[in-house]
Specification:
Length: 90
């Protein structure tokens, strides 16, 4: 009976070590996905606001995943870039 308890303790420690290693290995990718999601939502809010402001002069930027990420990651320079590209090509 004494040897069986040590096996449970050993297996428990091995499992805890495995969970720790998996958590540290997956932390960075998860952190970047959260940051990318934040940029995505922030870019959508920026584009929505820009479309409200510039809609009276007939200038609107399409809201899709590419433009949302561009506006979210680059922020003001990205929005200016999108407005210039929209003016030149549409």
């Amino acid at each position: 009976m004494q040897g069986l308890e040590w096996k449970f303790i050993l297996w428990g420690l091995i499992c805890l070590l495995g969970l720790y290693l998996m958590g540290t290995a997956l932390y960075r990718p998860f952190k970047y996905l959260i940051r990318l999601g934040f940029y995505f939502v922030f870019g959508g809010l920026i584009l929505f606001t820009i479309n409200l402001v510039f809609s009276h002069i007939g200038m609107q930027v399409a809201i899709n995943p590419v433009t949302m990420l561009t506006a979210g990651i680059l922020q003001l320079p990205g929005v200016i870039l999108l407005l210039i590209l929209n003016y030149l090509f549409l």
